[in-house]
Every structure is written in C-alpha cells, then in structure tokens.
Task: inverse folding
C-alpha cells in the first residue's frame, strides 16, 4: 500500500522535480545541489517544533521535507505558523532519529540499528526482523543493479516499525492517518516507514514485509520519487517481484523459477488463462492507462497479479527497457498530473512497442513459466 498527498490545483513549485528527487534520494545539502535555493523553516507537528525544507507551496497547504525524511503537509494555522531560519538543509543523523523514535514509541520498544535501517520493535524480539529488512534491501539493490537500474543511496535511515500484534499495528496506522484493512503491513510514503506486526502467520507477514520493504528501498534509492506521480502498476509490480522467499535467501533467486511469485501466477491462471485470454490484454492496457483496477475492490487482486507479470517480464526479458521505464517515471516533474494519454504514450516510448504487442509478449513469457 502506498499513500499519497492530495495535490490541489494551482500549485507553485519551490524546487524543481529533478533537484528535489536528488535531495530526497541523497539527503544532501542543497548548497551542494542548487546554487540558490530555499532554506530551512521551523514548523510544528502536534505542537512539537520541527525543522525542514519547503518542497511545494499550494494554495491550501505547504509540503515540507523533515530532517528525518518524513514529508508533512501543513494546512491552516500550521501553514501560517512557520519561520524561516535561513539555514542550509542538513538531514538528521541516525543518532538523532533513533532518539526521536525512542521518545515516540516509549520504553516498551527498542530501536535496533542495522547498516541501512532503524527497526522499532517490542523489546526482546532479537534480530529476526532487522535481519529480514536488511536481507530484503540487499536483495533489492542487487537485483536492480544487475538489470542496469541506477541506484543512488539515500542518507535518511530507513525506519521499520514492528508492532506486537495486528491490533497494535492498526492502532499505529490510525495514529499515522493511514486507512487500511486486512493487511499485514504497509509502506507509508510520507512518513517513509514500513509498519507491520509480530503476531500472526509468520510466512504471510514475511512476504508482506518483503513487498513493503521493496517499496521503501525503491523510494529511498532513487528508483521511485516520493514527490512524483508514478503509475501503481509500476510501484506495486516491483513490490510483487520481491515477495518470494527465495529473493532474500543467501543465494537469492538463482533460477528464474525461484523468482516467480507463485500467488500472482496462480491468480493469472485462474482469471486470465495464464495470460492467454483477451481479458489479459485489456487488463494490461487498463493498468498502463489508469490506476482504476487497483481502486476497485473487485479487481484489486487481478491488478496486483497483472502488474507483477508486466514488471517480471520486463526485468527478466527486457532489462534495458525495465531500467528505461523506471528512469522515465522517476524523472517526471514534481506532482505533475499524469493522464491516460500521457501514460500510454510514455509507456510505448520507453518500452519500444505498442501495448497490444507488449501484452502478447508477456503472455508468451507466462506460458513458458
């Protein structure tokens, strides 16, 4: 699941999309990226003073990048009650972020630091969750790099929150303003956190964590941008790629069959004759053009399965086009609207074939599996 900030009409850009993407991915100092740029402002979240970089100034809200990597949408009095500090932007260091997390979650939780993560978990849970997040991230970077996708490491520590059970997870999601039901975990784009729990069927939860951790890695390592509208078949297709357990084993996904998402493939066999039906080609076209299949509860499961097939085919059989697609979607303007015509036109330009031909190639690939 990926949440989004509503983008009202009449927006006014403060930083260009390409520069902002660099800041979000690299967490760098704007003085090294921009000759002249905005300085840090002081603002308030739940009456707590924070410091951050203004990203976009809408008529009804100001979007700010916090020093810990969170994105805040300030509205009403919060939008007006800001102060320009005339200081350069510097991301919070891991110690600052760790202290803030400890204060936020309290003594019943511990903060476990790994090379790339700060994992918030109930005390005494050991290394199981930190190891899973680390292995998931390393698998993501390795898989993408092998396929020519440009990776740029971020300087924001990635935060993962593991609650003791499902009810505690839903309470934490409600506190964060996330609306979701019947999930084992989420990646929340604005807070830049994965939230999951430690009280259910471990195999199912682990698959969800691998999916959500792939989102987090993608948004932190410049595969996606958190301030660019990216088609959901692209983002969710990547999440689906990393659900199989073999993807995070020591010899991750050595064979093509190891890398297959069995649940997605089964859904495709049940509802699309393994990709051979006419409905499959139409589903591919619908996903490229809009996100409606994801938004309709009756077609959501199909949307995830078809998105997996499309991204898996590109990654395994057309890696250059896979990388070109990700570079193209990531490089669009900040919060720039993306209508059906533009999405279809961009797809055919980046992938180098029309939609119907592409759907047939994906169907042939699925048949070979």
Result:
């Amino acid at each position: 699941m990926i949440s989004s900030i509503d983008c009202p009409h009449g927006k006014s850009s403060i930083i260009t999309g390409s520069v902002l993407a660099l800041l979000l991915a690299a967490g760098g100092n704007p003085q090294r990226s921009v000759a002249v740029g905005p300085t840090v402002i002081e603002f308030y979240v739940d009456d707590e003073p924070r410091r951050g970089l203004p990203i976009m100034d809408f008529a009804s809200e100001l979007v700010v990048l916090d020093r810990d990597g969170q994105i805040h949408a300030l509205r009403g009095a919060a939008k007006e009650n800001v102060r320009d500090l005339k200081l350069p932007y510097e991301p919070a260091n891991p110690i600052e972020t760790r202290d803030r997390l400890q204060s936020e979650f309290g003594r019943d939780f511990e903060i476990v630091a790994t090379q790339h993560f700060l994992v918030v978990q109930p005390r005494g849970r050991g290394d199981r969750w930190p190891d899973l997040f680390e292995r998931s991230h390393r698998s993501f970077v390795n898989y993408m790099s092998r396929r020519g996708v440009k990776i740029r490491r971020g300087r924001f520590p990635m935060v993962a929150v593991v609650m003791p059970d499902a009810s505690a997870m839903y309470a934490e999601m409600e506190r964060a303003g996330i609306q979701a039901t019947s999930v084992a975990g989420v990646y929340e784009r604005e807070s830049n956190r994965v939230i999951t729990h430690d009280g259910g069927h471990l195999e199912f939860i682990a698959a969800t964590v691998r999916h959500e951790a792939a989102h987090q890695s993608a948004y932190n390592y410049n595969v996606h941008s958190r301030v660019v509208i990216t088609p959901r078949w692209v983002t969710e297709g990547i999440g689906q790629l990393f659900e199989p357990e073999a993807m995070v084993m020591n010899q991750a996904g050595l064979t093509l069959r190891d890398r297959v998402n069995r649940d997605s493939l089964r859904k495709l066999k049940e509802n699309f004759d393994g990709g051979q039906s006419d409905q499959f080609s139409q589903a591919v076209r619908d996903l490229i053009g809009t996100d409606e299949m994801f938004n309709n509860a009756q077609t959501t499961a199909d949307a995830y399965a078809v998105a997996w097939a499309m991204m898996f085919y590109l990654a395994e059989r057309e890696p250059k086009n896979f990388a070109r697609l990700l570079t193209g979607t990531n490089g669009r303007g900040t919060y720039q609207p993306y209508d059906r015509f533009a999405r279809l036109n961009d797809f055919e330009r980046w992938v180098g074939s029309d939609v119907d031909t592409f759907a047939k190639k994906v169907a042939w690939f699925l048949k070979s599996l």
Summary: The first helix runs from residue 17 to 26. The first strand starts at residue 12 and ends at 13. The chain has three domains: 12-84, 94-220, 232-368.
